Each structure stands twice: as C-alpha cells, then as structure tokens.
Amino acid sequence: MKAMILAAGKGERMRPLTLHTPKPLIRAAGVPLIEYHIHALRAAGFLELVINHAWLGQQIEAYLGTGERLGVRIGYSPEGEPLETGGGIQRALPLLGNDPFLIVNGDVWTDYDFSRLRRPLPGMAHLVLVDNPAHHPEGDFHLQGDTVSDTGKPRLTYSGLAVLHPRLFEGCQAGSFKLAPLLRQAMTNGQVTGERHAGRWVDVGTLERLAEVERLVQERA
User: Which residues form the Nucleotidyl transferase domain (predicted)?
Assistant: First the structure.
C-alpha cells in the first residue's frame, strides 16, 4: 500500500514561520513536521510515498530528495496553486495507482500506529477520528460501531488520516475541490468505515499548537 502526505497548504496562521519555509518543514523539537510522518510510515511498512506541494514546495523536494536518506521512495505531485485536499489527491492518482492508499495531512502530529491501516478496505474510505479539540468543538462525523455517518451524535473530528479507494474520485473534474463532499456522498451509501484514535493528536495550525507538539515530543524522549 502506498501513502500520500498532503503538504500543499500555505500555513498562513503560522506566520511569520511560513513566510519563507513551507509548513511541513517547520520544526518541532528540531525535526520537520513531515519527517515525523515519514519515520512513522516507514516503521509501519509504507515505503512508497507521494507528497504534493505548492507554496515553497521546491524546498520540500530539496530537503527530502528521493527519500533514500530516510529509507523510503518519494514521488512528488507539484501544484501551481493549492488544489484543496480533493483536487490534490486526484492530481496525484497516477502516482498512487489503482489500489487503496493511505493519506495523512502534513500539518498534524500524532502517535497513531499507521500499521493499523494495512488491511483490506471494505468500502470507499476508512477514517481515523479523534476527540474534538478545543478549536473544533462541534466535530465532523458520527461513529457508530465502525460505520461513519454525517448525521447523529456524538460527533468526532476527522484527524486528517484515512485510507481511500481511487474509485472515490470517479467522475471528478480536474481542479480545486474539497474531499469532504466526496466522503459525505460515500457515507450516504454506507461506504465509509472508521475508528477512534484515543492517543495523541495535534492539528499544528498555530504557534501555540506547535509548542504543544514540542512538549509532547520531549515527554516521549
């Protein structure tokens, strides 16, 4: 199974750090955020990675190269302008192939064990959900057993980590579009499963949350 790290965001809320550095290369405890994902993915057996990028993306390619230094193989999907999550994934589909693939947002930090996702995908998507953080108290989706729906309570927050089937994007036109409407449509057809991750997870969208990641990393050291 291949994995894709979504790294095309501009990180405007992280300024001034992101004025001259792409958000995935911002360091937490001395290590770029994206490198935490790569180490975890490699440990879980994901050796073929795809990374999309836009804002200052050449810095990402220059730093990671082919991935050999980190024990993986990396292909890149550059975007002139960010294509949103859905459009970015669709653009990268030729690199991802015809089988289900893992995606993870480049701007989250988590202790989730990626090897849990190396299993057959019963539907169109499998989402990892987390308890609602203070900055997103309403959550996104409802989890009943292992089925995810857009209705019902309580609601959990989508972690930015999932396994998707390429067929989820059938009929989509090239360009910028969001992933959430595709997921919601698949939910109406009972084609989205999920799980709750009770461990550590941080959406590194502000300088304060970056400091939180640094604290968590130092606790684990």
Answer: 2-117
- How is the chain split into domains, by residue range? 3-220
3-state DSSP helix/strand/coil % of the chain, to nearest 5: 35, 25, 40
Beta strands 141-144; 155-164: pairing state = antiparallel
- Strand bridging mode 155-164 / 125-130: antiparallel
Do 132 and 154 contact (CB within 8 A), yes or no? Answer: no
Q: How far is CA 48 from CA 90, 96, 136, in A?
A: 17, 9, 32
pTM, to two decimals: 0.94
pLDDT at 221: 66
Cβ 105 vs Cβ 157: under 8 Å: no
Whether the predicted pLDDT of 205 surpasses 90: no
How far apart (Å, rounded) are the C-alpha atoms in residues 7 and 56?
A: 10
Q: Angle at the Cα of 204 (from 202 to 207), degrees rounded to 5? A: 125
- CATH superfamily for 3-220 is Spore Coat Polysaccharide Biosynthesis Protein SpsA; Chain A (3.90.550.10)
Mark 122-133 as b/e (b = at least 16 C-beta within 10 Å). ebbbbbbbbeee
